[in-house]
Design goal:
Blueprint (H helix, E strand, L loop, with lengths): L25 E6 L3 E10 L10 E4 L6 E3 L10 E5 L8 E13 L8 E4 L19 E5 L10 E6 L4
Length: 159
Amino acid sequence: MPVPDKVFLSTPSDTSASALGVTGEIREHIHATHGKQYYRMVKNATGNVIAANLAVVFASGSSVNCALPGAAAPAATVAGITQTAIPVGYYGWVVCGGDCTVTANADTAANSLLSTVGSAGKVDDTAIGDIEHAIIGVSPNIIDVSVLATGTMRVSGLM
């Protein structure tokens, strides 16, 4: 029997104490606002709930356990962006490709490059200076945190 080349994710907001898929598997989802997104499964290994719309990185030596990143986390370590809160010890899904909602640390300019230079999982468009390796996407629109702390991010280079 042939193996399907695509596995669709119907409910990316699901979290569970049991694995929701195979480690490393990428699933596609069609979001009503953001369009096609790619998700990967992670496990919250932080000891605290991870809020929605934050970047997470793989814990050292793991392909599923994740934690919140520090400043300028290398893109190669970023697992994706949460779209729903993930409880402690639970598995959940993170966006690793496509447009998604993200929390900004400060105002961002339209079409600015984003990295995890903000506080714990937030992104910012701080001027690039020896952190090119940390760029994880672009902000297609202005994010004005005085109006709303979240905005759209086009995630790239995380698959």
